[in-house]
UniProtKB/TrEMBL annotation:
It comes from Brevibacillus fluminis. Keywords: DNA damage, DNA excision, DNA repair, Endonuclease, Hydrolase, Nuclease. PANTHER family: UV-DAMAGE ENDONUCLEASE. This is UV DNA damage repair endonuclease UvsE. The keyword DNA damage applies. Signal peptide: none annotated. GO terms for molecular function: endonuclease activity; hydrolase activity. Gene3D superfamilies: Divalent-metal-dependent TIM barrel enzymes. The lineage of its organism: Bacteria, Bacillati, Bacillota, Bacilli, Bacillales.
């Protein structure tokens, strides 16, 4: 069985859990005002999250990527004296209870500035803090280890092998509760499916196969041949993959608004013997998901 999901923003509602403020706005306020503003933003994000989870459940969407900015400036110095985890413990528990009750799966994708294989100590420190924050959110919700943090290997830095080794070395520095959730995705410019699969097998962590990225950068491998190995990295957890259609031939790396049905059917056929969660990475988010589901069902009836 394949379950489909979407990332961060629903097209069906303006009330998404990604409301934010800015440092410029916060700097205009005194300490009490800053704390009040941060609390308001996080409370709004919790309200919106509960509404969105209910919408997802109603439409039988059981895979969802939580926006990274859910807790405003969670890793910034401006929030270092704000114990948001303790203050909003009830809200985290309430969200987690609903997620578990509905059988939903939340995942996250820390930002592009979080680069674990960086050679720069300050970037590494910021990356570990960011990963720690994302893991903490899922821990506070009481979610199991299917709620993963998806990252890329990072930069090539003119030496692929050294960059892969540095990822491994820096992975060893992570807290165990972060290691337990971190998974690695192949990217569209530098680290191929085979590169990432080897790394994940070495570290004993899951790999997220992004088929679109594989088509962007590869050495001629057929991704279907590697499915058993990719699935095996997940152990007892439900494997997660990413799927998208290219925007155009000239902008092949960019995501299209929707999913091309023929492409997806070939993908789904290759995975017919597995239970997989598939994150659709397309511009129209849940709208594209619902459209694909309908077209897929209609095509199945015709066949």
């Amino acid at each position: 069985m394949i379950r489909l999901g979407y990332a961060c923003i629903s097209m069906a509602t303006p009330n998404n859990p990604n409301k934010k403020t800015t440092i410029a706005q916060l700097n205009k306020l005194d300490k009490a005002g800053q704390l009040k503003k941060l609390r308001q933003v996080l409370q709004t994000n919790f309200f919106n999250l509960m509404d969105l989870l209910e919408y997802n459940a109603k439409h039988q969407i059981f895979l969802y990527r939580l926006p990274s900015e859910f807790v405003p400036f969670a890793t910034h110095e401006i929030t270092k004296e704000w114990d948001w985890a303790k203050e909003f413990a009830w809200d985290f528990q309430k969200a987690g209870d609903y997620i578990r009750k509905t059988g939903m799966r939340l995942t996250s994708h820390p930002g592009h500035y979080s680069i674990l294989n960086t050679p720069k100590p300050n970037v590494l420190e910021a990356t570990i803090k960011d990963f720690d924050y994302h893991a903490k959110v899922f821990d506070l919700m009481g979610l199991d280890h299917n709620s993963v943090l998806v990252t890329h290997v990072g930069g090539l830095y003119d030496d692929k092998e050294a960059s892969l080794e540095r990822f491994s070395a820096h992975f060893a520095l992570l807290p165990e509760y972060v290691k337990a959730r971190l998974v690695v995705e192949n990217d569209d410019t530098s680290f191929t499916m085979v590169d990432v699969l080897g790394l994940c097998e070495k570290l004993g962590i899951p790999m997220v196969l992004d088929v679109h990225h594989h088509h962007c950068v590869n050495n001629g491998e057929n991704w279907v041949d590697y499915i058993p190995r990719v699935i095996k990295t997940w152990g007892e957890r439900t494997p997660k993959m990413h799927f998208s259609s290219p925007k155009s031939e000239s902008e092949f790396r960019s995501h299209a608004d929707e999913i091309v049905l023929d492409d997806f059917e070939r993908f789904a056929t290759a995975l017919a013997n597995y239970d997989i969660d598939v994150m659709l990475e397309c511009k129209k988010k849940d709208e594209a998901l619902l459209n694909l589901r309908k077209k897929w069902a209609d095509a199945s009836v015709r066949s």
